[in-house]
């Protein structure tokens, strides 16, 4: 893949051949890294050849997230190309004028004499949604005709990107697709882990570096560490998540605690894997927990049908009446307040938008927690009344 | 400009009908009166006179000679004209036949058969002067920009010929007649304020070229200058005087401040002059004294409006002559070239004067005559000078008063003269001398204060306005490498952009389109053609080839020449921008969309006197669709107009586009001339590749056939075919890096095809992480359980946990599940709802279940 891309860009630079390609791969598979690497290599190569091709490539980096429509993208291209209608850093003129200007500019060049231009479209899929795909059509059209040599490279994570292109845009695209996959297995993953953690050879404190690297070597053979990594590996092959995990672990390193231990990694992984919603439950009051349990029961009874506050309140009342000795019977407005707090925490979510007419008590809601989550959270909840725990654990039988 | 005038102009016949034709019910007249309501003037144009006729571009009217005027049965006034062609109307490729520079004042006697000589009277703007010259003759100095034209040669659409003696004399005759009439028409019908002045100068010019007429001309000039000219100038002077007092005041303020500095300002002046001379366009050196005088006189009339004085009306003419006499008297001084001597003569006052004088020069420099004019001037100067001397004696008495104090300024003016000699700008010289001839510098109206002019001079560092920016990509500083190996060469040839020598497999379509356009061109009518076909079937390429062929034919004079305009729906930001583009390509004007639409409608709907046929290619027609469809309607309506001479070739992808998206009225205007490009068959694709390769031994025969068959089966897109071949050469090159270069074989092609057409999904699933795979399995299980191809994350989560238990793995938390789900969604393996629904987010597979099963089974 690397070689392919390098070859492609090299030909544009050296022979003035126009090309277009797409780099497709899931998030965190190193699309941008690959491209940057190739570009760096390319510029270095030129320098080796005697500075002939310095400032040779115009590099245009457009991100679909920043260039939200063709108009902005066009202005950005013009700015980056340093065309003559750029005053300062601003581009003037209407959209139509700009487009005509840019096309004219690109048309003037020919294969042998003008400077090749490289367009990199990051988040390519977002460019596809622009009106009429005008920009893409024009870029690809230039790459398919004897004008200024351009290479259009799109980066995207969508596998179905080609189906999004309009047929005439698609016809102009050269259908070069470079797929990037995280195809390494666990052994390679461990090796990457070691490489990431190891200190480079030119680290100033050599003895420490040696100690650290030895430690890393030990870590990679440790059973718990391997388990942690295996878990992560099973979950995602994305290297960025590995970086995050390691970052959490490494941030524990202090002067007194100079080396990473397996425990650190384990903690980090725990921290990394925690369930966000369940965590919120830990911070709730007993009343709120009771409401959630009431909702859980309602869900069980009605098989996931939505409920409203009144139903929850009734359920809660039933519980209070039976086990009144351990819980204070709250007023309805107080319960309502607790319910609204849950709403704000997005543990419950209304199905439809709250309208003016509907009373708040009768607004239909859904619980955004799973039974397992609730039970797990209750286990960890400190000082939970046993009655409440029992109520939560009890099934329909007590009704 | 002309349109505005037209609205207020009344055309009526001059005199009684001369003759009438019963059968045709036409009446012929000998002249026409053009009455302008705005300026309350009337102009009479008679047969044989030269006129300006409104063209498609308001800035550039056509020149013609009026041959006949008649009114037809329906009371419409017509005129029959003999056209004269401007140099800009002659095709670019023919211009080089002339082998000489052509001034904008020169026109050609038009003998092109195609142009309609019958025009509506309403298009006549005004009368002009056309002077026949022999081929060898240089153009006389034209003084007025638009009023005088010269004709030397005739143009019949193919080559230039010298005017035949017959036409020459006829033209001359007409000219004389025309020259005679202004005496009457001018005196009582001034066309506009400046015209008498121009007329007068024209006559001066003509007298110069034809010495026989000198006496007569001088007389006419005389009368003109005494009556109408004087009045005109007076009125102008009044207008000018409003501006001038401030300038004069500044000048007076300026001179005292300058004077104490003594000699130093002198140097400064020199420097200033030097600088300014550089700023002014470089002028021809070695100007003769005679020429100086001549241009001085001739140059002055147009500049007279600048001069201002509140005294008698004749003052300006006097001033003019005064300048002349000054230059004559100055001439001996000017021969002295030693600058030091002049420096001695210099006094302080002169310094300031010269400075001011120079400033005036500078301010007038934009009005510099082109160099060619000055060369002409040199030739005719002798005659002019002669004539002027006569005039001078006639009017010199009036000037005496003003000459009184000129002695004192002699030294300074001679000095100035010298300076100017150094700079060799004859026109400047005379102007400056003219200034010095009038001792009171305050009398000069257009004198600018130094500060003012300095401000006015454009700084060299001013940034360019974006409008004038030339769109260009920087040049590469290194030549593109030539292809080294046979494979590289082949790749170059296979690139879509490479222009093939011919278009194989589209001969029939080519012929059809060619015939269509050719017949319309020959008939001089308009028409539409709709061309459809799937992408990559060579529609645009074929049409371009047709146009190319037609252009060549037109160059070889087999066909009438035509204009070619192309717009592309995809390259427009808005359908209405189409108007702007078309207009810009036709005339070079840049206007807004609505205005452009109006202009184009006018252009195509009115009978243009001499317009070429326009061939318009509309690519990607479907993008010009608007809700009211007015763009398409207009586009297809124009060719049906009688006079439009517009041929439209519309290109789109879908065959039934007219039926599908067009309203009935649009579709009916599009007409029935349709053509569809079928996708290429494999044999045609094979032929295309072979013809592109041009007997290069880079591909195996079987390999080519494989590509063609594959592509033909899929889409018949030639672009795709070429891309595959190109990729195959790369693979081949790659594989054979170590060994000797080889040709592209079947294996390489297969690899390339696989690369391009393989579905990425299976591969993506296989490379996904374990939990992602389990999640997909869970989805499948949930689908099977529910029998619906849609599930919420919550349901899938339960399945996932169950699966994890079976596998004996730690089950992930809900947050992790969400992350996995969203990751798969980003790759579009799954279709997911927006994530704010959390567990109740619905999930659907984007690929078939079988594919997922297949991908997961191999594990």
From TrEMBL, chain A:
SMART domains: AAA. Keywords: ATP-binding, DNA replication, DNA-binding, Nucleotide-binding, Nucleus. It is found in: Nucleus. Pfam families: AAA_16, ORC4_C. One of its GO terms (biological process) is DNA replication initiation. Residues 17-182 form the AAA+ ATPase domain. Signal peptide: none annotated. GO terms for cellular component: cytoplasm; nuclear origin of replication recognition complex. One of its GO terms (molecular function) is DNA replication origin binding. InterPro entries: AAA+_ATPase, AAA_16, ORC4, ORC4_C, P-loop_NTPase. Its main location: nucleus. Belongs to the ORC4 family. Component of ORC, a complex composed of at least 6 subunits: ORC1, ORC2, ORC3, ORC4, ORC5 and ORC6. ORC is regulated in a cell-cycle dependent manner. It is sequentially assembled at the exit from anaphase of mitosis and disassembled as cells enter S phase. Interacts with DBF4. Interacts with POLQ. PANTHER family: ORIGIN RECOGNITION COMPLEX SUBUNIT 4. This is Origin recognition complex subunit 4.
UniProtKB/TrEMBL annotation, chain B:
Residues 43-166 form the BAH domain. One of its GO terms (cellular component) is nuclear origin of replication recognition complex. Keywords: ATP-binding, DNA replication, DNA-binding, Magnesium, Metal-binding, Nucleotide-binding, Nucleus, Phosphoprotein. Residues 216-263, 398-483 are annotated as: Disordered. InterPro entries: AAA+_ATPase (IPR003593), ATPase_AAA_core (IPR003959), BAH_dom (IPR001025), BAH_sf (IPR043151), Cdc6_C (IPR015163), Cdc6_ORC1-like_ATPase_lid (IPR054425), ORC1/CDC6 (IPR050311), P-loop_NTPase (IPR027417). It is found in: Nucleus. Its main location: nucleus. Pfam families: AAA (PF00004), BAH (PF01426), Cdc6-ORC-like_ATPase_lid (PF22606), WHD_Cdc6 (PF09079). Gene3D superfamilies: 2.30.30.490, P-loop containing nucleotide triphosphate hydrolases (3.40.50.300). One of its GO terms (biological process) is mitotic DNA replication checkpoint signaling. GO terms for molecular function: ATP binding; ATP hydrolysis activity; chromatin binding; DNA replication origin binding; metal ion binding. Residues 403-413, 449-466 have a biased composition (Low complexity). PANTHER family: CELL DIVISION CONTROL PROTEIN 6-RELATED, ORIGIN RECOGNITION COMPLEX SUBUNIT 1. Component of the origin recognition complex (ORC) that binds origins of replication. DNA-binding is ATP-dependent, however specific DNA sequences that define origins of replication have not been identified so far. ORC is required to assemble the pre-replication complex necessary to initiate DNA replication. Belongs to the ORC1 family. Component of ORC, a complex composed of at least 6 subunits: ORC1, ORC2, ORC3, ORC4, ORC5 and ORC6. ORC is regulated in a cell-cycle dependent manner. It is sequentially assembled at the exit from anaphase of mitosis and disassembled as cells enter S phase. Interacts with CDC6 and KAT7/HBO1. Interacts with LRWD1 predominantly during the G1 phase and with less affinity during mitosis, when phosphorylated. ORC is composed of six subunits. This is Origin recognition complex subunit 1. It comes from Mesembrinibis cayennensis.
